[in-house]
Amino acid sequence: xxxxxxxxxxxxxxxxxxxxxxxxxxxxxxxxxxxxxxxxxxxxxxxxxxxxxxxxxxxxxxxxxxxxxxxxxxxxxxxxxxxxxxxxxxxxxxxxxxxxxxxxxxxxxxxxxxxxxxxxxxxxxxxxxxxxxxxxxxxxxxxxxxxxxxxxxxxxxxxxxxxxxxxxxxxxxxxxxxxxxxxxxxxxxxxxxxxxxxxxxxxxxxxxxxxxxxxxxxxxxxxxxxxxxxxxxxxxxxxxxxxxxxxxxxxxxxxxxxxxxxxxxxxxxxxxxxxxxxxxxxxxxxxxxxxxxxxxxxxxxxxxxxxxxxxxxxxxxxxxxxxxxxxxxxxxxxxxxxxxxxxxxxxxxxxxxxxxxxxxxxxxxxx
Length: 367
Fold this sequence. Notes:
Order of helices and strands: EEHHEEHEEEHEHEHEEEEEHHEEHH
Distance between the termini: 22 Å
Number of strands: 16
Oligomer: single chain
Radius of gyration: 20 Å
């Protein structure tokens, strides 16, 4: 089902079964205003099949962990939820696997995934996985958060028996699952899914029971249930928020800043305030024009003039400093191997091709 923006242009083909959840969370409003995850990079910590048409070229596999055959894998399902909410975000399929010897961690997570997230300025990580909860691994993820990365995980599907390991660590934002119906006394009702893990570490809930596209047939949709899918729905909504902050302030929010924004935009579904079933409640996107962006910039707004620029040959009083800062933060232009930007150097045809390719991949221009 296509929808159209205020200027009559088609903006999205939605799965009709998801519209009530999208409308409740104001996702349609944000899409209509142009917030679709442009410029935002998300790590989804599991393998999928990026070549499937349902991913529309937005899921990348930098370390070749992909499934070669088309199948509706768990990773394909979570990636499709992310893509529906943030269709212009770039999603990277990455591994959280590692080996452990006492407190020494090695393998894919520390050799590939963590450095890749830092180097590519990925600002959101979704892990619809049980994960791990011990000091050495928690320290790795806590340090990652200092690089402007927000960690989101599923709470688990074992009800009162408690949350999964990532969620128990209190390093990640733990997301339970809510459902939606509109038949109780002819009023919409939001309820807790009976499988959704509850406990003291739960932060909030988001919708599950969404429809996703079949990897072998783009036009076929089917429902998926579990906190595995409430987590990417919430993470996808954060991608829209991160696009807004990136465009308005020059940077994305840190996790503690996001948590501050959540405090103002969660609606209670159970007891007032926090409770072990719903956490702090259901996140509803506020209208973009009503967000006081400066309220949530705990570390301050990047100043114009390039004080945060990493290029030694770009001074803060240079006329192009703010623009160089922006394209660098977005990953569109990354400077030279020696760490300089060479602002007055002519651009070669292959450098221009690389810039244009990045603009296409990030959704700033259409193919």
